[in-house]
Amino acid sequence: MRRWTRLALRAYHLHCAREDARVRHLVVPLGVWVCEHCRHVSLNLHSFNSHRADAHA
Ligand SMILES: [Zn+2]
User: Fold this and answer.
1) Distance of alpha carbon 35 from its chain centroid, rounded?
2) What is the DSSP letter of 22?
3) Could you give the number of structural domains in the chain?
4) C-alpha of residue 18 to centroid of ligand 1, in Å
5) 3-state class of 7 per DSSP?
6) Would the pLDDT of 56 be above 70?
7) What pTM was computed for the model?
8) Where are the alpha helices (DSSP H) in 1-57?
9) Which domain holds residue 6?
10) Dist. CA 29 → ligand 1 center (Å)
11) Residue 44 Cα, ligand 1 centroid: separation in angstroms?
12) How far is the CA of 38 from the centre of ligand 1 (A)?
């Protein structure tokens, strides 16, 4: 269950990053997470989670 949740969250954020890039005509490589709160960009899930924990706890 936890594994599924992580995978779903990852897919969700990847989808959002790609959609965001598409509407802004930017190219976002796979494996980039964009914070939905402040548009901070993380290159891996660990730094993404760290950013959210630090900035949006
Ligand atoms: Zn943020």
Assistant:
1) 6
2) H
3) 1
4) 17
5) helix
6) yes
7) 0.46
8) 2-23, 45-55
9) 2-55
10) 19
11) 14
12) 4
Distance 56 CA to ligand 1 centre (A): 6
Identify any residues that bridge with 34 across adjacent strands, giving them in sequence order: 41
Buried (b) or exposed (e) across 11-50, using 16+ Cβ within 10 A?
eebbeebbeeeeeeeeebeeebbbbeeeebebeeeeebee
Local confidence band at 35 (pLDDT 50, 70, 90 cut-offs): confident
Place of tokens 């930017």: 26
AA identity, residue 10: R
Phi, psi dihedrals of residue 47, rounded to the nearest 5°:
-70, -30
Note residues around ion ligand 1 (Cβ under 5 angstroms): 35, 37-38, 40, 55
